Amino acid sequence: MPSCPMLTVGMPVYNAQRFLAKALDSILSQSFTDFQLLISDNASTDQTESICRQYAARDPRVRYFRNEKNMGAGWNFRRVYSMARGKYYKQAAHDDFCRPEFFETCINALERDPGLTVAYAKVTVVNVNGEFIEDYECPMRTNEDDPVVRFSDLLLLGHRCYQVFGIHRLSALQKLPPQGSFAHADRILLAQLGLAGRFYEAPERLFISTRHEGQSVWTMPTRTNSR
């Protein structure tokens, strides 16, 4: 593995054993291979540590870090991001999965067009058993030249912020404050990235999101859904 791969994948985890192995397999089976995977474990009490250490032992691209105590989700997101190196960064979740072409498709788009800050793909949503729920759609004008149009859609439309799990130009991210620890912090980060540059959406459904009761989007108070 090169000392500074082109892409850093950051995965903050806590008690992630249910989906973790499948998520790691989907990352390590990507057709694009010039990346490092950084896992920051927030003092998990289940089999998360054992699973991560097994993967780190057999693939040099995987680096595992364990926190002595649980520092909170926001802190863990920022910790793994602070260790990122290279040209691009992808935030990964333990319960979402990527088709093998995801990294390659997004990075090719970013390489072709320096005006892009984020590249992502269309999304399929599944249940905990991997069964189809829906092909998610929320048309957005994130590829428009006008930054006001991009900002407006990213901030005000009722979308699920899947773009935060796309591939981001690290130089653009580093000019912004890191993602905060408050409701809709991912939306604020995306809106700021939208001011910095355009987004690219791959037409193929290369990202798979698992819907389950433990996700914060389903447990936040109803008031956080208001504009």
Please give a structural write-up:
- With 227 residues, the chain is an alpha/beta fold.
- The protein is built from eight helices and nine strands.
- Strands 1, 2, 3, 4, 5, 6, 7, 8 and 9 form a nine-stranded mixed beta sheet that branches.
- The chain is globular, with a radius of gyration of 17 Å.
- It starts with 6 loop residues before the first strand and ends in an 8-residue tail after the last helix.
Strand content: 25-35%
* Largest sheet, strands/sense/barrel: 9 strands, mixed
Q: What is the SS-derived class?
A: alpha/beta
The coarse overall form would be: globular
Count of separate DSSP helical elements: 8
What is the typical, i.e. mean, pLDDT? 92
The N- to C-terminal Cα distance equals 45 Å
- Order of helices and strands, N to C? EHEHEHEEHEEHEHHEH
Radius of gyration: 17 Å
For this entry, what is the oligomeric state of its chains? single chain
